[in-house]
Design brief:
Order of helices and strands: EEEEH
Radius of gyration: 11 Å
Structural class: alpha+beta
Number of domains: 1
Largest sheet: 4 strands, antiparallel
Distance between the termini: 20 Å
Strand content: 25-35%
Helix content: 10-25%
């Protein structure tokens, strides 16, 4: 199971991110300065953020060069 089982979209954003809940806040898988508050989405929503896809693939043991 992934450490980032939830999905979130930043307010006004265009990508769906992988996220986890930590002390009542959503923490995104991808690094970066996120200025907007993430809004939780359905866990069946596809992840479209390249950074989050890469983080989840590396977590699963995939070779980052193949992404």
């Amino acid at each position: 199971m992934s450490r980032y089982p939830l999905r979130a979209m930043l307010h006004g954003g265009r990508h769906t991110h992988a996220a986890r809940s930590e002390r009542g806040r959503l923490v995104l898988a991808c690094p970066g300065p996120h200025r907007a508050a993430p809004e939780e989405m359905s866990d069946t929503t596809p992840i479209t953020c390249p950074g989050c896809k890469r983080a989840r693939a590396e977590e699963a043991g995939a070779d980052p060069a193949e992404l």
